[in-house]
Specification:
alpha/beta; Rossmann fold; six-stranded parallel β-sheet; four-stranded parallel β-sheet; about 15% strand; elongated
């Protein structure tokens, strides 16, 4: 019976150690700290009580006990020093002594294995990313990670993120998902030494510059372009996608007969993409009724909150998609800085503000004027678009508005 119990107990302990390795790095590190603290307390009790009992010398015990405890964490025991004490005189006491030593050693081993394992996994991922088509993503954020996972799921290519610095736990998480991460100042500057590690010769390269700071995206694309040219990478095998103004950026990056560049350049404006997504998710035609002849039975009336790049893009999309035969388009724009923000739109689309019934109010959507307008037009309003450009402010306005309309 004792043999069976010993086997079961040993198996349970071994299983616990294996499960510890399967934990996420952050969770494993936290668990290791607790195990290390428990082992240290147990070691102080065993060696302190045992050595004091046998030697009777308080000063010597105070000096030797910490040394014995520290040696536990490198796999060394001093059982012989307290062997005759009462604390290890019973089977239970002896079991506790060895359990404390095992916890001490395993806590250190867990830290070492997780650290070395993460570093090994990182290098292995980078090595495996040297085959097939390569998707290179500059910037590490929620949107870029989602894109990386989609590219990887599409198959046939490797995905490598480039960022100056990233939390080790985040890198390990991405490695576990099959994504590689290249960090460091040289990598963020598209330095030749870092880019050489990706083995670009003979590969198709798709670059996405998606850092949250858009100016960094352009600078990275330009620096990478210089590195690719020096490395002799054919332009026709490269493409780049980044946010910005297409009229300005595309010509700087596009390959021509006389100048090296990317084979394909895709420049997008985040505000335009967001506005298009709004129309796809909330199509204006879903909010009006049509007759048998296809003509609208009612007008389309909307409100746009905010008039920065996002608000202007939303208004343009609503003008294009909110007009129907038999109905009239009306819009109201609320922005405390309307006059300061509308200068470019007036020169870019002067007729839009003249030919369509678009009212402007230099009022904050959190003020009384906005709510008075909504209350007066509630029976005819079809859509309210909140596009201040600030996610926190959008959320604040939308939450308050939903409570008002409830």
């Amino acid at each position: 019976m004792a043999i069976i119990a010993a086997v079961v107990l040993s198996s349970a302990i071994l299983l616990g150690l294996i499960l510890n390795l399967a934990l996420r790095p952050a969770a494993a590190a936290k668990l290791s700290v607790w195990v290390m603290a428990l082992a240290m307390i147990g070691g102080l009790i065993y060696y302190g009580v045992g050595y004091m009992e046998l030697s009777g010398d308080l000063a010597l015990t105070a000096v030797r006990t910490p040394v014995f405890v520290l040696r536990m964490f490198v796999g060394v025991n001093e059982f012989s020093a307290i062997k005759g004490s009462r604390i290890v005189s019973t089977p239970l006491g002896t079991f506790g002594f060895w359990l404390v030593h095992m916890l001490a050693f395993c806590s250190v081993a867990s830290v070492v294995m997780n650290t070395l394992g993460a570093a090994l996994m990182r290098q292995l991922r980078l090595f495996l990313s040297r085959r097939g088509e390569l998707t290179l993503i500059y910037g590490l954020n929620e949107n870029s990670i989602a894109l990386g996972k989609e590219c990887l799921a599409a198959g046939g290519n490797s995905v490598v993120f480039i960022v100056e610095q990233a939390a080790p736990a985040k890198i390990t998480e991405l490695n576990a998902a099959g994504l590689s991460v290249l960090t460091g100042a040289d990598a963020a500057a598209a330095g030749p030494a870092s880019i050489r590690r990706l083995h670009l010769k003979g590969r198709t390269l798709s670059v996405y510059a998606l850092d949250e700071a858009e100016d960094k995206d352009l600078f990275f694309a330009l620096r990478l372009l210089d590195t690719l040219e020096k490395a002799g990478i054919p332009a026709e095998r490269t493409s780049v996608t980044l946010p910005g103004a297409e009229d300005v950026i595309a010509s700087m990056l596009q390959a021509t007969k006389d100048r090296y560049g990317y084979g394909f350049v895709n420049v997008f404006e985040p505000s335009v993409l967001a506005a298009r997504a709004l129309i796809r998710m909330v199509p204006p035609w879903d909010y009006i009724s049509f007759g048998a002849d296809g003509r609208a039975k009612e007008d389309f009336e909307c409100v746009v909150v905010g008039f920065g790049s996002h608000g202007q893009a939303v208004l343009k999309q609503l003008v294009m998609n909110g007009q129907f035969a038999g109905s009239k388009f009306r819009a109201a724009v609320f922005s405390p800085n309307f006059k300061k923000e509308s200068g470019y739109l007036r020169s870019d689309c002067p007729e839009m503000l003249r030919q369509y019934e678009i009212e402007s109010f230099e009022e904050d959507a959190r003020g009384a004027a906005f709510y008075n307008y909504i209350e007066q037009r509630l029976s005819t309003l079809k859509l309210i678009a909140i596009a201040t450009g600030d996610p926190d402010q959008n959320r604040e306005i939308s939450d308050s508005l939903m409570l008002f309309l409830k």
